[in-house]
Amino acid sequence: MKTTRFQQRDLVWGILVLLLAVLPLIPGVIGNSFRAHVLIMVLLYASMAQSWNIVSGYAGQTSFGHSVFFGIGAYGAGMAVVTYGLTPWPGFLVGALLAAVVAVLISWPCFRLSGHYFAIATFAIVEIFNRLFMVWDWVGGALGLDYPILTDGWKNFVWSQTKVGFYYGALALFILIFGIVRWIETHRLGYYLRAVREGQETAESLGVNSTAVKLAAMAFSAFLAALCGGFFVQYNYRVDPPMVMSLEMSMKFVLITILGGLGNFWGPLLGAMILIPLQEYTRAYLTVLGSGVDLIIFGLIIVLMMIKQPGGIMGIVTDFGARRRRAGARPDTGV
Amino acid sequence: MALLEVDNLTMTFGSLVANRDVSFDVEAGTIVGLIGPNGAGKTTVFNCLAGMCKPTAGRIVFDGRDITRLPAWKISRLGIARTFQVVRPLKEMTVLENILVGAYLRQADSAKAMEIALRCLKTCFLEDDRDRPAGDLTIGNKKRLEVARALATGPKLLLLDEAVAGLTSTEVREMVALIRGLRDGGITILMVEHIMEAIMPIADKIVVLDGGIKIAEDRPAAVVENEAVIKAYFGEKFSQRLKAMQQAGAS
Amino acid sequence: MDIFAQVMIDGLLTGMLYALVAAGLSLIWGVMDVIHFAHGEFLMVAMYLSFWLGFVGGIDPVISWMASGVFLFILGALTYRLVISHCIGKSAMPPLLATFGLSLFLKNFCMNRFSPNFRILQDTLLGGKTIMLGSITIGLPQLVTGVFSVTMLFALYYLIKKTRLGWAIQATAMDREAAELMGIHTDRIYLLVFGLGGACVGIAGGLMTSYLAVHPEVGGLFGLIAFLIVALGGFGSVPGALAAALIIGMVEALAGFYIAPVFKYVAVFMLYLVVVMVRPKGLFGW
After folding, report:
1. N or C: fewer beta carbons within 10 Å in chain B?
2. Do A191 and B100 touch (CB under 8 A)?
3. Are B176 and B163 in contact (CB under 8 A)?
């Protein structure tokens, strides 16, 4: 039964990727439209949320510091292009590796902290990085980095004529990150992550080096979040500290995943499919009501969501499944 | 040389002495029982052996290697597995997944780890509940899960902390049979137990703790007659009953 | 030496104000184990209220703090009744995220209604006045606000430690179920605690407008610093919050003066990280 469920999930996954891949072939769906922008954002934010899900969902270490890793990735690509006149590719790699190293260095002491203390430590780290980057001339300070005009294509990873290139870029990122998490989920690391979340001492009694497991999760998570940051800066042609390293950005990682379903493979995608179109469309259409209306609505939705369905959308699905399973199991167990 | 040698183990928490100079050996292939009244320091001994407490003084040698103060996960890798007196299922994982976590210790390959896990699942009679979240099990099955999960790590020495306490009499018999089967399969067993009916018939040796100090170490038949043990733990009546029980078992 | 003393005094006065802001958060955290993310935005609301009362109604902050205290008590109680009571429970995340949503809402609502501009009350009773202590200058509004904050803090401490109501709050903090069995309406205690938490920032925010500008982003930083103070002081401990707040106020002032103004908050956050590395439960926690 277990194995068939896994196969089903992989089939769904394959079909989804195939559909997303052929989408631009249908004329008028992608082009340079606003719809394309929303689709790209959904793929990007789903990927970000999934990278966060590794350490916070599967391993249960709630981080509010992921915008730091996202930002390091963004600055990696941005500095490769703007400061050093290279293609962004070495920047992607260096940024991601650096983010993983920073993540491990920060997390090592922080993992000893419990619950709220860990959460607040991660808030503090975001603020420290934000303020340091604001005054650090080498990375462009408060002004940030603005891209020069570049030729379109994969080499420079920019496309100004149509959004199809960025779409495939985002799709590649999405497939990479979801693929990696899928792999982790079905292998030893995935089981160890969940074991550490469910009971660290118990996991250790079963031979799990919980510190190493959590650090590995953090490193993976930060590496992938940084890749998303690299994409983000390419897409926006600029980066400055508040754009990437802020508590608000950190919260997006958290919110999307929790809205979709924490520690669930599909959670980040579901969350992004709901929150991101909402965010983008309200931002685009409600500006007539003045600035910040999109965020006013966004805030209200979060409040409502937490009141009505704190388990996220996957929570509804699993609740339903569990009720059905229990209802089905009753005749067997009845004596 | 014994598989496990505990040498003058002392464990204090502040001014509270949980164990003082406790020494005993566990020979390979035997079942050793660790008994004593509540608060005698049995679970503390287990915690020290399994690396969850760092002993204040003393030495623990396992399989010829000093394991005193090693972290729990390293001790587990060397071949000591434990169960918890207060069961600790990984609640939101299924029964099979719980056991898989243990199985991955010796086998990184998922398919092979799955084979080990399925075998342990079967050994501990948990097949009907394999896909159920571990948090939803009955107490009896949670106890079985503790054993199955520990077993999956492929231990040389299995520490069972009150594995039969709280079970129905049928379940107790099943568990005793299971433990004996494990021993026959080559696993050495050290068990803390309050239920004498479970431990006396299968143990090769009994170690008795009282107030953190070892007061006896002998064959079950001899322990039952030991004055100090009767005074500290069994009481006169119960000792008579145990003796009768053993004679009945022998004949 | 005089400069050093001046910086220290400024830091202490800031710290005294921080203490009152943090005390509200500490109470909520300690009793309910909830991270109240909108605490800073509540402060902002109190400041706006006090600003408009002064600007439109001509009521000076030395009077209007009472109004903002009462208003924020009600806002806090309402927040508990309408939001928190529906999502408090097993996990810490739903209340945290719900209050984050609320903070997003409040901040952007004020942004939308009142624009992002800084607004400051002119010609307040205390504004701009100073007293000289030797060669040290002390701002009168800062002094009054600081002293008053600490007074309020002691009142809160007295309430918790010495009154029947305070005992009920303590009992609820220790074990909600047991308190319920003892006949304490823990739901009402929670309501009250959230209200008191609001009243603390209401009073602090009301007083602050004598000398500080209000803008929609003002709450974020105060909220964050309040978190650090509570975590440093050990959650639920009012004296701990006071001590931690004074330390943070002084570190902030010293770093701002002797290193660079941009580093004053970096220093504060670093201090937090260093302290919790050494003492994972804060300075006064176990």
Report:
1. C
2. yes
3. no
pLDDT score, position A5: 55
Among C101, C106, C273, beta carbon nearest to A124: C273
* Tens digit of each residue's pLDDT (9 = 90 or more) over C180-208: 888 888 899 999 999 999 999 999 999 88
| Whole-complex ipTM | 0.90
- Residue of A1, A186, A207 lying closest to B76 (CB–CB): A207
**Does A134 contact C108 at a Cβ distance shorter than 8 Å?**
no
Q: Are A74 and A84 in contact (CB under 8 A)?
A: no
**Chain B CB contacts of A1 below 8 Å:** 131
Closest CA to B132 of B140, B141, B143: B141
**Integer Cα distance of B159 and B164 in angstroms:** 13
- B102/A206 touch (CB, cutoff 8 Å), yes or no: yes
Q: Which domains are delineated in chain B?
A: 4-79+156-250 (3.40.50.300), 88-154 (no CATH)
Q: What single letter denotes the amino acid at residue A3?
A: T
Q: Do chains C and A touch (3 or more CB pairs under 8 A)?
A: yes
Distance (Å) from the C-alpha of residue A278 to the closest C-alpha of chain C?
A: 15
Using a CB-CB distance cutoff of 8 angstroms, which residues of chain C are in contact with residue A120? 35, 227-228, 231, 272
How far apart CA A38 and CA A165 sit, in angstroms, is 14
Contacts made by residues A86-95, CB under 8 angstroms, sequence distance 24+: A87/A155, A87/A156, A87/A157, A88/A156, A88/A157, A88/A230, A88/A233, A88/A234, A89/A157, A91/A230, A92/A227, A92/A230, A95/A226, A95/A227, A95/A229, A95/A230
Among A63-77, A144-158, C5-19, C248-262, the range of highest mean pLDDT: A63-77
Residue-range domain boundaries for chain A? 2-246
**Do B34 and B209 touch, CB atoms closer than 8 A?**
yes
Domains along the sequence of chain C with CATH:
2-278 (1.10.3470)
Determine the distance in angstroms separating the CA of C285 from the nearest CA of chain A, rounded to an integer: 11
Find the Cα–Cα–Cα–Cα dihedral B29, B35, B41, B42, rounded to 10°: 40
C-alpha distances out from residue A54 to A180, B24, C86, C173, Å: 10, 45, 28, 33
Q: Which residue has the tokens 């509804």?
A: A316
Residue C130 φ/ψ, nearest 5 degrees:
-135, 160
User: CB neighbours (10 Å) of residue C181?
Assistant: 9
Backbone angles phi, psi at B18, to 5 degrees: -85, -40
In whole angstroms, give the CA distance from residue C22 to residue A95.
Answer: 37
**DSSP one-letter string for B162-215:** SSSTT--HHHHHHHHHHHHHHHHTT-EEEEE-S-HHHHTTT-SEEEEEETTEEE
Using DSSP bridges, classify how beta strands B65-66 and B57-62 pair: parallel, antiparallel or unpaired.
antiparallel
**pTM of the shown model:** 0.89
Contact A193, A221 (CB under 8 A): no
Do the chains contact at A117 and C276, CB–CB below 8 Å?
yes
Q: How far is C213 from chain A (nearest CA, A)?
A: 21
pLDDT band for position A322 (cuts 50, 70, 90): low
Type of residue found at C135: S
> What's the gap in Å between the CA of A232 and the closest CA on chain C?
23
